[in-house]
Amino acid sequence: MKICIDPGHPSEVGEGTRGKKLTEIRAGWLVAKRLEALLKAAGHDVTLTKSREKEFVKNRKRAEIANAFQADLHVRLHCDSEGGTGFWTYYPDRPGTDSTGKRGPSPEVIAACKQLAPKFHAALAAGLKGALRDNGCLPDIRTAVGSKQGALTGSIWSQVPVVLVEMCVLTHASDEAFLLSDAGQERMAKALAAGVAAAL
C-alpha cells in the first residue's frame, strides 16, 4: 500500500501551536519519521509531504503531493492547543469550498473516508488507551477551519482518502510530556501504524 505522511506546519496558516518545550512542527516531524520507519518495515511504500522539519509547504501542496503519489491513505499529523486533553481523528464527510473557490473532495473520496476513518481511529485509540484521552472520530466540520469551509483545505484538495490526527493538546502539561518522551513518540507512531493497517 502507498501511504503519504503529512507532518503538519509550517504552512500558510502559520507554525502551529507550542507547549512549554515542544512545538507542533517538532512533534509532527518526530512522530512522522518514526511512523515512516514502521510502515516501511511493514512493506508499505511511504512518502512525506516535506523533506525537512521546518520546510514550508502550503496545505494545498500537501494534498497534491499525496494525490501525485496516488496514496491509499494520506495521514496528516497535528497537535491541538484548545482547552482539554487527548487526541482526535478528523475526516471529510461533505464537500467544502476553500478561499480560492475550489470545491471538494469528491463523493468517492468522501465515501472512502467515511469507511476508513472509524477503523483507523478505533485502532489508534486501542494503541493509546491509558496514555491519552480519546476524543473520538469526527468530521472536518467540527474543526475551526472546517466549520467555515465545510471541510479542511487539505481535504478539499485531496483526491485520495485522508485523515487528520490531532495527536494531543500541546498546551496540556501531561499531553506535552507524553509526546516529549521517546516512549510516547514511539507509542504514538505504533498506534498510528495500527490505524493505517486497520483502515486498509
TrEMBL record:
Domain MurNAc-LAA: 63-197
InterPro entries: MurNAc-LAA_cat (IPR002508), N-acetylmuramoyl_amidase_3 (IPR050695)
Keywords of the record: Hydrolase
Main enzyme class: hydrolase
Short name of any one Pfam family annotated for the protein: Amidase_3
EC number(s) on file: 3.5.1.28
UniProt KW Mitochondrion keyword: no
GO cellular component terms, A-Z: outer membrane-bounded periplasmic space
PANTHER family, per the entry: N-ACETYLMURAMOYL-L-ALANINE AMIDASE (PTHR30404), N-ACETYLMURAMOYL-L-ALANINE AMIDASE AMIC (PTHR30404:SF0)
Full protein name: N-acetylmuramoyl-L-alanine amidase
